[in-house]
Amino acid sequence: MADSSVSELACVYSALILHDDDVDITAEKMTKLIAAANVEVEPFWPGLFAKALAGRNIGDLICNVGSAPAAGAAAPAAAAGGAAEEKKEEKKKEESEEESDDDMGFGKNLFLNFTVL
Fold first, then answer.
1. How far is Cα 114 from Cα 2, in angstroms, rounded to an integer?
2. Is residue 100 assigned to a domain?
């Protein structure tokens, strides 16, 4: 396993252990747990994870791993109207691309122009 993967896993596990024991997740505490496990990590990893998890509800993060809301979920009605317009624009673009292919002789009838000997 790559060193960065081992470091990330060590930080994740140490954060989970601290959370399970209802202890504040700090870089110092994570570093102590990682050292007790005889895992060597670069010194910035525990601080990075501690800052990323500061003020977060770890229980919610664990329970909602795969249920993140879709982007733009705040305005679904506006998105539906915009999607219809995008489809129209895409269709127009496709038609204009086909026309430009026809102009160069590469249209739908490319193989009909050849005669079989």
1. 58
2. no
- Domain extent, residue 36, equals 3-63
3-class SS string, the chain: CCHHHHHHHHHHHHHHHHHHCCCCCCHHHHHHHHHHCCCCCCCHHHHHHHHHHCCCCHHHHHHCCCCCCCCCCCCHHHHHHHHHHHHHHHHHHHHHHHHHHHHCCCCCCCHHHCCCC
* Rounded Cα–Cα distance for residues 25 and 47 (Å): 10
pTM, 2 dp: 0.53
| Distance (Å, whole) CA 114 – CA 117 | 9
The CATH number of the domain where 49 resides is what? 1.10.10.1410
Share of the chain above pLDDT 90, in %: 32
Q: Which tokens is 102 given?
A: 């026809």
Please tell me the total count of domains within the chain: 1
Query: Of 77, 82, 11, 22, which is closest to residue 49 (Cα–Cα)?
Result: 11
Q: What is residue 5's predicted lDDT score, i.e. its pLDDT?
A: 86
